[in-house]
Amino acid sequence: MMDKVKTLFDVLQEGFADIAGVSHCSAFPKRRDDIRLPAVLIDLVEIEPGRDPGTGELALTTHWEARILFSDQEPQWHGWALVQQAMSWLYNHHWSEINIGRANIKQATPDHFSPELQGHSIWLLEWTHAVRIGENLWEGEDAIPSVINIGWSDGSYHELGAENEPSV
User: What superkingdom heads the lineage (predicted)?
Assistant: First the structure.
């Protein structure tokens, strides 16, 4: 079984990296590395159980954050445009063939809580993705019956333990 969360991260990274003007896209660095701006830094921040689809698959809701960084020397609207493009890309992509749904965008807001990044503008984009893991028990040959038995008797109520058939 492939790792759906890793697959989703890879697709997100490729998609954000393809946005015009983005010079760097990666996971949030664990150490201080030099990165070219504008940059998108992606982080998986939570995984919680999702709504059971009734298919035998494990449903998960993955919570993601992307920090969009750009220089304070750039006009503010350049950053706004990058944020809008990132949100548009998320909204317009889903991967139903591998059971990854469309993003549910929560918000995009300026992120003022990174003092080590002073001199840069940062926007925080938050969203969730629904992911289903495992095999769907309703797929494949003979998974859905072609004959359905509505009753198991000849129609008499005697087999069900009733003394008399009800009158109508």
Answer: Bacteria
Please report whether residue 167 resides in a domain: no
pLDDT in tens, 112-133: 766 566 778 899 999 999 998 8
* Separation of alpha carbons 109 and 66, rounded Å: 11
Total Cβ atoms within 10 A of residue 22? 19
pTM of the model: 0.77
Q: Which of 89, 98, 136 is nearest to 8 (CA)?
A: 98
d(CA 79, CA 72): 9
